[in-house]
Structures are given as C-alpha cells and as structure tokens.
Amino acid sequence: MKIINIMVGGPASEIPDLRQYTSAEISWIGVDRGAKRLLDHGIVPTVAMGDFDSLSKEELAHLKTKVADVREFPAEKDETDTEIGLSWAMEQNPDKIRIFGATGGRLDHLLANLMMLTKPRFLNAVPVVEMIDRYNYIKMYTPGSYTIEKLPDKKYVAFTTMKDVTGLTLKGFAYPLENATYPVGSALSSNEFVEKKGEFSFKSGMILLTQSND
Amino acid sequence: MKIINIMVGGPASEIPDLRQYTSAEISWIGVDRGAKRLLDHGIVPTVAMGDFDSLSKEELAHLKTKVADVREFPAEKDETDTEIGLSWAMEQNPDKIRIFGATGGRLDHLLANLMMLTKPRFLNAVPVVEMIDRYNYIKMYTPGSYTIEKLPDKKYVAFTTMKDVTGLTLKGFAYPLENATYPVGSALSSNEFVEKKGEFSFKSGMILLTQSND
Q1: pLDDT-derived band of residue B30, with 50, 70 and 90 as boundaries?
Q2: Domain end position, chosen among A115, A134, A153
Q3: Which residues from chain A sit within 8 angstroms of residue B162, using beta carbons?
Q4: Do residue B106 and residue A212 have CB atoms under 8 angstroms apart?
C-alpha cells in the first residue's frame, strides 16, 4: 500500500502523535511551514513546497540543506498551499493520502481545506484522502455504500452534508436513518457507533464524515 | 447597547482573553461545560443551560450553588447546546450576541455551530451574532451592502459562501471582486484589507466572513 502523508502549516497544538503514521515505506510532503514542522519532528520530507512566506530566510536556507527537493511557488496563486501539495501527491498514484496540519488556527484555512475536496478536479482524490488532527479523523465520501470501522480512540461520529444529499441511510449507529434527504450544510453531529462497525449509504451529494474525541 | 455573551463547551485553548468582552452591563450565558468554564474565569453567568453530561455530579452541584438560574435539558434533543443557548439569548432581544468556545476540538461541533445560522429559524440572529476565538472573528451575512472595519489584531479576511452567492463585490481589499458568482462552499481565503475599512455587497446567498491571525 502506497501512502503519502502531507503536513501543511496549521498550529502545532492540533498535530497528533506522528509516530503511528510513520514508517519506512510512507513518504512525507511538507507544505510551507509544514515542511519546517516535519524537520522539527525529525521527519525529512521527500518534497517541500510552498511560497515559504511563513519561514525566515534562515529557516528556508536550513530547509534546503535538509530536503533534496524544494519547490518554491509564488505567494499570489489560485491554488491554496494544501491544494498544491495534494496535486503533487495525486500524481504519485498513492492508495492513501493523509493530511495533517489542516485544522486549528485560521478558520478560513480550515474551511478551504474541507471544501477543497468538493471541487471537481479533486474528485479522484476523495476516496484516498484523510485529514487527521489531535481530536478528529475526517474523510469525504461520494455517493455509494460504505462500511466504516469505529476508531478505537474516538467516541463520536458525524455526517455533514457538503452538497445536497438524498437517500441517506445509517445502520449501526445510535441515531439510525432510512432514506433521508438533507440540504447542503446540514451537520448531523454527535452520533455514535453501536458496535465496532457501521454502515451508511447515500444516492447523491457529498458527505464529510468525522470521528472525534472531546 | 445590550450585549449577551454565550460560552459553549469547546476547548479552553481556543478561548481568547475574556476581559475585553466583559463589563457590568454585559450578561453571560454558560452552556453545558461552558458554564463551568465561566466560573473558572471568575465570571458568574446569568443562566446556565445544557444537558451537563460533560460535568461530574460534584461539578454540577457546585454550579448550582453559584448560578441562580440553571436549566437542565435532556441529552437526546433535536437542538445542539449552542442552539439552545442562542434561542434563549434571542428571546432577550439583544443588539449583539457573542459566542465563545464554538471552535477547536470536535470538528462536528464547529461545523454545526457555523451552519446553525443558515437555518431559517435563526435568520433573525444572523445580524447580531459574532463568534470569537483566539485566532478568528466570525460573522455571517445575508444579502446587502456592508462596510466592515479591519480588526487591529487580525491580518487576514476571508469570505466563505454558505449558500450560492451572486453579485459579490469586494472593495478595499487586496483581491477585489466585481459582481462575482460563487457556488456554496467556496472558500475565498487569505484576502487582506488595503485600508482600515473595506466594503462588500452581494445580491443573494449567504456569506461567512472571518478575520483571522496566523
């Protein structure tokens, strides 16, 4: 299984313990300040990319001595830093992409990161991308039927509609649903798994699933 | 000016310095764990409400000795804790409602809090509600023309569409717009004020405005 982890520049306080997500065959991308953060964690990314305007000249020079492939982009660009990292990662055809550092701090960054996967050009990325922080595991879904496992360290599960959703059925959760319809922007929060697995399906739209701790 | 501040139960790490938001004529509502947090900050709320399942029996008993009006709601309910607090606050006809503790930690709570104001029954609340955390000032807008001031401690401004938006014009920002159209879920992030004030207007839809620090 080919896994690429991306670290973007959100606050350090939201980053989970990275050791469980690191192994010899997993490659890391550091985006902007996320590249420095990886070095701070003792992880040398395969590629560092971004406008690096959040780093000092000295920090950027140090980054270049450590990372073989550093790609600088202009600060004024149409893509967000996360989108640039995700585009590069998708070109490597991975089975899974985990994004860290996408939450906390600036809310406009968080919203842009969450909404990125609703863009048509990232449709192929939806099935492989997870976002992970200290409190949340986040995954986006397109229409279909899914069986998901409860993460052992998470208590709550929530379904947020990122587009108008029809035919939503939830089984194996404390609050089940049968063929329900919800407009975009509905936050079905604070649900819980009844057993270790749950099933959900929907006919149209897009769903952001979160498993969270308090 | 009648101001009501609501503290909900998000993580303490996201709460800004509350002293600048506190004065004799401002009343506080503590929702669930937010009620305990207010006491921890030396603030006695006028009302405490929630299911209080995040408090121990001892903490709830202590709360009742300090707060004159404690309202307990069942844990299984259709409204979120924040919605219960907001409904009560709206009944007092305030000029402004500030919500603290609505961000950080559980992402499903944050999304539910942001999307709350898109619900028709909270339409009257949109002009008076602000959400504030350590990094972000958040306000929702219905169609119209607005002049907004740069907050002195914030660098970035962003416009996120909570419904399909038409006729969006931005003046006085680094990235201006003229009569633009964006579908729901567009995150126009990382804009900046050129001067101390900026103007924006739109014809239909709903916009979430954030002013943020890194």
Answers
A1: very high
A2: A134
A3: 185
A4: yes
Partner B contacted by A155 (CB < 8 A): no
Contact residues, A window 33-52, toward B, CB-based 8 Å cutoff: none
Residues A21-74 have pLDDT tens digits of 999 889 999 999 999 999 999 999 999 999 898 899 999 999 999 999 999 988
Q: Are B106 and A136 in contact (CB < 8 Å)?
A: yes
Residue B12 and residue B74 in one domain:
yes
**Cα distance from B127 to chain A (closest Cα, Å)?**
19
At B125-171, the pLDDT tens digits run 999 999 999 999 999 999 999 999 999 999 999 999 999 999 999 99
Query: What local confidence, expressed as pLDDT, does residue B198 receive?
Result: 98
Q: Do A214 and B118 touch (CB under 8 A)?
A: no
Is the whole-model pTM more than 0.80?
Answer: yes
Mark whether B128 and B168 lie in a shared domain: no
Tell me: do A79 and A179 sit in the same domain.
no
- A158: nearest CA in chain B? B108
- Note whether B185 contacts A162, CB cutoff 8 Å: yes
As a whole number of angstroms, the distance between CA B122 and CA B185 comes to 20
Q: Does B211 touch chain A (CB under 8 A)?
A: no
**How many contacts, defined by CB atoms under 8 Å, are there between A and B?**
110
**CA distance to partner chain B, nearest, from residue A188 (Å):** 8
Residues A123 and A58 in one domain: yes
Q: How far is CA A65 from CA A48, A59, A62, A169, in A?
A: 12, 10, 5, 52
Name the residue range of residue A174's domain.
Answer: 140-212
List the CATH number of the domain containing A74. 3.40.50.10240
B189 and A108 within 8 Å at the Cβ level: the answer is yes
3-state secondary structure A144-208: EEEEEECCCCCCEEEEEEEEEEEEEEEECECCCEEEEEECCCCEEEEECECCCEEEEEECEEEEE
Residues ≥6 apart with Cβ < 8 Å to A13: A104, A134, B13
Same domain, A79 and A41: yes
Same-domain status, B63 and B98 = yes
CA B201 – CA A26 distance, rounded (Å): 47
Given B104, B134, B164, the domain boundary residue is B134
Number of domains in chain A: 2
pLDDT in tens, A124-170: 999 999 999 999 999 999 999 999 999 999 999 999 999 999 999 99
The reply to whether B86 and B147 lie within a common domain is: no
Question: Token pair 């604070």 is at which residue?
Answer: A190
